[in-house]
Design goal:
The protein has about 110 residues and is mainly alpha-helical. About 55% of the residues lie in helices and about 10% in strands. It comes from Liquidambar formosana.
């Protein structure tokens, strides 16, 4: 669901080429596969595939959870926000800290 929302948001920003990273091997493998899944998960994957056709390029990439701290930090932060909120030009302090953790973890893996 988050990936589908992110694609819609990227489209609203008029982005044409995007990289979608996730730490679920199952989800990323399904998104990179042409095979159809006959269940509710398969319907969501199909919906994401349809949405991704609106872009020039979409890359679905798996990352280890240890190097995905920014995403997990944003999810934890979002739980305290009641309204929809977007940061386009400013970086929150905790995001910068998590980004530094991600970079270090990626360099050591």
């Amino acid at each position: 669901m988050a990936i589908r929302f992110a694609l819609g948001f990227a489209r609203d920003l008029s982005l044409r080429s995007i990289v979608v990273e996730g730490d679920s091997v199952e989800v990323i493998d399904a998104l990179n596969s042409a095979a159809s899944l006959v269940n509710s998960f398969g319907l969501l994957v199909e919906d994401i595939h349809n949405a991704s056709r609106l872009f020039n390029e979409v890359t679905f990439s798996h990352v280890q959870r240890e190097v995905n701290e920014v995403a997990h930090g944003l999810v934890r932060h979002e739980r305290n926000i009641k309204d929809f909120c977007v940061w386009l030009e400013e970086v929150l302090d905790f995001v910068r800290e998590k980004f530094d953790v991600d970079l270090y973890a990626e360099d050591t893996s």
